[in-house]
Amino acid sequence: MIGRLLLFIILLNGVFLQAQEGTVLNIEIQGAKRTKTSFLKKLIALKPGMVLDSVLLEQDIARLQRLPSVSHAYYQVFSSEANEHNVFYNVEENFTLIPFANLFSSSNDAFAFRVGLQEFNFLGRDINIGGFYQYDVFNSFGVAVRAPHLFSRTTGLSFSYNDFTTQEPVFFDGTTADYRYNNRGFEVMGLHEFNFKNRIEFGGSLFTEDYRYISGATNANVPRALKVDKHLFKLIYNYENIKYYFYFLDGFRSTLNFQYVGSTNENLPEFLIAFNDFVYFKRVGDKGNWANRLRVGLASNVNTPFAPFTVDNNLNIRGVGNTIDRGTGAIVFNTEYRHTLIEKNWFVLQSNIFVDGGSWRNPGGGFSDFSDKQNIRIYPGIGLRFMHKRIFNAIFRIDYGYGITKDASRGLVFGIGQYF
User: What's the rounded Cα separation, in Å, for the pair 92 and 74?
Assistant: First the structure.
């Protein structure tokens, strides 16, 4: 009896190994209409003539689902008696030519907006090209092109030009002044993917910062007009292990952003800045998604009213207001539970319960600033998401944050896309 059992196990292993040694005869892409099938075949790792590998199949599907042009993907394998396999990758495409509009309040509580147009799949090759116009007390515009697979399956390039003007509050001596701030320049970045989970961006920019005093407090040591030519070197390292299922996410991502900013004026001195975003998503049942983001950042601790880290509605803490403070260090944590209330074919209504919190290091201050009650802000809140499943990033969000720490505010925050 034992001998027969051993013989059966040996034969079973032999059959299994033989199946694993079966080769891929052909690979076909189905469902792609706007995306070039030749481009998709270049992206996938499995090739004709290779041994059929379930790990590569799953990895290819995950890679396809990351593309803005793909809302969902799955594979099918058809095997012959000769142990050869025909593999079909089936994709469901997103609509990728997206106009967008964002409404918000400016730093002086006036009406502000941003409108633009983006094509996330230009030429059917995952090229992102777009532009925007913004009115936020002053006029701004920008254009950008991002082609992550321009030179090869793993190497590409991005370029952007911005002429960005806003009214910015500047904080010093316990008082505030408003400045007209303009940032004009271009950036070029090289993009490279080491493997499925790890990729890097490296490049730089040349730009000019222009501060002009409008109103508020003054100080002899704080210039009323300042125009400085700058240069920047930037390194971004991204690790991602996230599974995508339509708008649901599950997994972990870490993004490190390191920059050196050189300057030609001591009033806006050169500095280093680095911050890391740790993001974790967890599926909860069929309708829930728990999302978390932790940002830890430090910059050169220069005692300047123009510090790089800001406390802002649209960036880190919902309900806090528009650029209410600045610092040379930041620790920010966002956690939220997203729950699908309605899902009808293409439309999704999602609720959101969140808590945003954080603390900052004052310019020229010490690490003890992070535990100072004056710098800690905690804002719980609720929100809604109106989503289109077949249009990439077509998510209109509205959140209401209510501060529970000292001298807190409250308010609505609107936007396009998930907050993080």
Answer: 9
The confidence score (pLDDT) of residue 12 equals: 42
pLDDT tens-digit series, residues 371-384: 999 999 999 999 99
What pTM was estimated for this model as a whole? 0.81
Tokens linked to 410: 């409250």
* CA–CA distance, 167 with 213 (Å, rounded to integer): 10
Amino acid at 228: V
- Any bridge partners for residue 272, and if so which? 260
Residue 299 forms beta bridges with which residues?
273
Query: What is the three-class DSSP state of 82?
Result: coil
Distances (CA, A) of 197 to 55, 131, 248, 338, 350: 14, 29, 19, 25, 29
Helix (H) or strand (E) holding 181: strand 175-193
Read off the pLDDT of each residue in 303-332 and give the average, rounded to a whole number.
Answer: 89
Task: Report the C-alpha gap between 183 and 165 in whole angstroms.
Answer: 6
Given a cut of 90, is residue 219 above it in pLDDT? no
| C-alpha triplet 304, 309, 313: angle, nearest 5° | 130
Dihedral angle over CA of 20, 22, 26, 30, nearest 10: -30
Amino acid code (one letter) for 395: I
Strands (E), 271-417: 271-284, 288-299, 309-311, 325-327, 329-344, 347-361, 377-388, 395-402, 410-416
- Give dist(CA 202, CA 181) in Å, integer: 27
